[in-house]
Amino acid sequence: MKTNLIKTVVLLTLTLAVVTNGQSDDKHWDSINLQNELIEVQAVPKIGGRIIQYKLGDYEFFWVNEELAGTDPPASRLAADGGWLNYGGDKLWPAPQGWGDDEHWFGPPDAVLDGGPYIAELTKEEGRTVAIQMTSEKNPRSGIQFTRKFKIFDGTTHVKIKATMENIDDKPRRWGIWAVTQFDTSNRHGDGYNKNFWVYCPINPDSMYHKGYNVMLGLVSHLSYKPDYENGMMRVHYDYRVGKIGMDCSAGWIATLDATDGYVFVHRFTYEPDKPYPDEASVEFWMNGQGELVAWGKEIEKMPESVEDNPYIMESEVLSPFAALEPGESYTFCYDWYAAKVPTGSAIVSCNDVGIVCKPLSAKLCGGKLILDGQFGIFYKGSIKPVLLDENGAEIKEGLNNVNVTPLEPLVLGEKTQLTENVPVPDNAVKIALILSDVNGKIVGELARAEISRN
């Protein structure tokens, strides 16, 4: 049995833990862990600069290949047959993928960008933040070098990511940055897969695709694709059947939801409509599973039947626009992660950088009592204050109650909610907004608002 050797450096209220020789159960690599009281981000530089796990409380979002867990990469950085060592977690790839020419990335596998060691640097950032930066080796095949910086903050599940690729070649290169996150879709309460695992993505109202999405791999008639055109939302339901779609998502967010246990992971990014994207997609979703892998109008592979060879995985992927780089030039793509606990069995309605809306806010004045309803997941620890607004959106100075919130618990409003108990509602109050403040009382932003119904 190994002995844990953990070096801990306390930086303000954030803890930076460096695991120097593994865990006693032999299931984890040496890693660099960034953590606060809400989340833990586990980085393993030597296996392709991966973030191998993101945890909210005790809940682990990412899939980790238990067959490879804790093992050092071979000298070739490839499997014995020359294939891909899929460790799991989150990683960077160049896009688009393909095997026909130098303008397409031939991986995975890729012994440098995906399987090679990255150099890690730990930094204390401005204010109360901590970051890890990982840099790949130079890759002659693609002509680029990747660097990613992950920054976490006190009192929130927010992780800010800055991904940079540099052209290290002697000729121009043109790639997009492709961030690939593998989620664990197994049933955590028994055998099989999680039958209530979803991805939500707003449909671009001006999408180039007739259906709002493009089937890239697998059957066009795949039953997992459930677009809700009335509400402008694409819903992808994991059912262990292979398939992949791409979307030109303009809303700048996607939400990956384990509705069985009520945990949601959010990617947020900036969409640039005037720029070309790899695969003409800003987001892509891959479902690992059984069935025929159909592409270019023909079956190219039949997926394995066994879970050992074909595990329960769903990938949520975000892509940058193409960047045309001259030798020595670099391009940076910034995006963000958030996570929250939501009510079990929830759906996703909308999202902002404060939290997730599972049931829209409503406000009803009944018998002089203001009743709020709605269900949410919150990205920050702090408090929610309802604010009354007049017809011009100006705040009405009436004292309303605050309620403490945390990403570790959903916010559920209803008749028993004490936010507006015994609070008079003046006649000029026409709307109400929910404003989030952090633990220091600093306003973070608005979670939701609604018109006040008077019956």
Mean pLDDT: 90
Give the domain tally: 2
Assembly type of the chains comes to single chain
Q: Beta-strand percentage?
A: over 45%
The largest sheet, given as strand count, sense and whether it forms a barrel, is: 10 strands, antiparallel
Specify the helix fraction band.
under 10%
Shape: globular
Which CATH architecture of the largest domain? Distorted Sandwich
**Counting H and I runs of at least 4 residues, what is the number of helices?**
0
Write down the CATH topology of the largest domain. Answer: Beta-galactosidase, Chain A, domain 5
Number of strands: 33
Features:
455 residues, mainly beta, Beta-galactosidase, Chain A, domain 5, Immunoglobulin-like, 2 domains, eight-stranded mixed β-sheet, 33 strands, globular, disordered N terminus
What does this structure look like?
The chain is an all-beta fold and 455 residues long. It folds into 2 domains: 6-341, Distorted Sandwich (Beta-galactosidase, Chain A, domain 5); 352-454, Immunoglobulin-like, CATH 2.60.40. Helix content is 0%, strand content 47%. It has no helices and 33 strands. It has strands at 6-11, 14-19, 31-35, 39-44, 50-56, 59-60, 90-95, 119-124, 129-135, 144-153, 159-167, 173-184, 197-202, 214-217, 225-228, 233-237, 243-247, 253-258, 263-269, 283-287, 292-295, 298-302, 313-319, 323-325, 330-341, 350-351, 355-366, 369-378, 382-389, 403-405, 411-413, 431-438, 443-454. The strands form 5 sheets. It has a 10-stranded antiparallel beta sheet with strand order 8-9-10-11-25-19-18-13-16-15, with no helix packed on it. Strands 26, 27, 28, 29, 30, 31, 32 and 33 form an 8-stranded mixed beta sheet that branches. The model is unreliable at 1-26 (pLDDT under 50).
